[in-house]
C-alpha cells in the first residue's frame, strides 16, 4: 500500500528537475499524477520514465501563463480522474542582472510564470477542492524569498510574491479543508545548473547542491500529513550552502 493510493495530483513543471522529482516521489506511492509543462517532447519522455512506478502518470502540455490552457489542464484532469487532491505549482522562470539593464520582457516573463501561474493553478484547484471538502496545494518558492542573491530583482520579487500568495491562500482555504504551503529549495542539481553555477545574472561560482529526490521526499512529507495538519513553510538546502548571512 502506498501513502498516496487513490490520490490524484497535478505537478506543473513536471517534465524535468524538481517537478519531475516530486512527481516520481508521488507516483512511487501510488498517486495518479498529471505532469504539465510547455515542452511536450520533454514532458512525454518524463511520463515514459515515470510509468515504471506503481501509480498512474499522464502528461498534458500546458503553458501556466495561459489562462485557457490552465483551465483546460484542470478540466482534463477531472475528466480523467474525477477528483484532485494535490496541486504542486512548480513551473519556474529564472532571470536577472543589473537592475538598470533589465527589460520589461525579462521582468514580465518571470512574473507571469512564477506568480501568475501559481495564482491560476490555485484558482482552478480551489473550485474543485471546495466541492470535495479539502485538498492540498504546495507552491515551490525559493530561499530567494528570504535571502536574495545579487542582481536577481525579478526572481527574488517573484518568490516573495509566491510566499505572500501562499499565506493568503492558506487563510482562504482553512475553512474548506484546503491546506496551502510553500517549499523553498536551496541549490538543487537540475538540468539548467549541471555545472553547479548560479542561474541568476551573476556568476556565484561552484556551489553545493542537493538532489531533486530530496525535494521529492520533502513534498511527499508535506502531502501525506494528516488532513488537519499543514507544514506551512519548509526550507531544504545543502548544509554547507551560504544562506544565513548571504544577503
Could you give a short description of this structure?
The protein is α/β, with parallel strands linked by helices and 247 residues long. It has helices at 17-27, 40-50, 67-81, 104-132, 153-173, 212-223, and strands at 8-12, 32-37, 57-61, 86-89, 135-140, 178-185, 233-236. The protein has a single domain, classed as NAD(P)-binding Rossmann-like Domain (Rossmann fold, 3-Layer(aba) Sandwich).
Keywords for this structure?
247 residues, 40% helix
Separate helix tally: 6
pLDDT average, as an integer?
A: 92
What number of domains? 1
Number of strands: 7
How would a textbook summarize the main sheet?
7 strands, parallel
CATH topology: Rossmann fold
CATH class: Alpha Beta
- What is the rounded Rg? 17 Å
User: Which range does the strand content fall in?
Assistant: 15-25%
Oligomer status:
single chain
3D structure, described in words:
The protein is of the alpha/beta class. The chain has one domain (8-236): NAD(P)-binding Rossmann-like Domain (Rossmann fold, 3-Layer(aba) Sandwich). It has six helices and seven strands; from the N terminus they run βαβαβαβαβαβαβ. Helix 1 packs across helix 6 and helix 4 (104-132) packs parallel to helix 5. The model is unreliable at 191-197 (pLDDT under 50).
Summarize the topology.
Layout: E1 8-12, H1 17-27, E2 32-37, H2 40-50, E3 57-61, H3 67-81, E4 86-89, H4 104-132, E5 135-140, H5 153-173, E6 178-185, H6 212-223, E7 233-236
Parallel strand pairs: 1-2, 1-4, 2-3, 4-5, 5-6, 6-7
Amino acid at each position: 500500500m502506498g501513502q498516496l493510493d487513490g490520490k490524484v495530483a497535478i505537478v506543473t513543471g513536471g517534465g524535468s528537475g524538481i517537478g519531475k522529482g516530486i512527481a516520481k516521489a508521488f507516483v512511487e506511492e501510488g498517486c495518479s499524477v498529471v505532469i504539465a509543462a510547455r515542452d511536450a517532447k520533454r514532458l512525454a519522455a518524463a511520463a515514459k520514465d515515470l510509468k515504471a512506478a506503481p501509480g498512474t502518470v499522464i502528461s498534458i502540455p500546458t503553458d501556466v501563463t495561459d489562462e485557457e490552457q490552465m483551465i483546460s489542464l484542470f478540466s482534463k484532469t477531472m475528466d480523467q480522474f474525477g477528483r484532485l487532491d494535490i496541486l504542486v505549482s512548480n513551473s519556474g522562470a529564472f532571470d536577472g542582472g543589473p537592475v538598470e539593464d533589465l527589460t520589461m520582457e525579462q521582468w514580465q516573463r518571470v512574473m507571469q510564470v512564477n506568480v501568475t501561474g501559481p495564482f491560476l493553478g490555485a484558482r482552478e484547484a480551489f473550485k474543485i477542492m471546495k466541492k470535495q471538502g479539502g485538498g492540498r496545494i504546495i507552491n515551490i518558492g525559493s530561499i530567494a524569498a528570504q535571502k536574495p542573491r545579487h542582481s536577481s530583482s525579478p526572481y527574488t520579487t517573484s518568490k516573495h510574491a509566491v510566499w505572500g500568495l501562499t499565506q493568503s491562500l492558506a487563510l482562504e482555504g482553512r475553512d474548506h479543508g484546503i491546506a496551502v504551503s510553500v517549499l523553498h529549495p536551496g541549490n538543487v542539481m537540475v538540468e539548467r545548473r549541471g555545472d553547479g553555477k548560479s542561474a541568476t545574472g551573476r556568476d556565484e561560482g561552484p556551489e553545493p547542491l542537493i538532489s531533486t529526490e530530496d525535494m521529492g521526499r520533502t513534498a511527499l512529507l508535506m502531502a501525506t500529513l494528516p488532513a488537519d495538519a499543514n507544514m506551512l513553510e519548509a526550507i531544504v538546502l545543502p548544509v554547507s550552502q551560504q544562506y544565513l548571512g548571504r544577503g
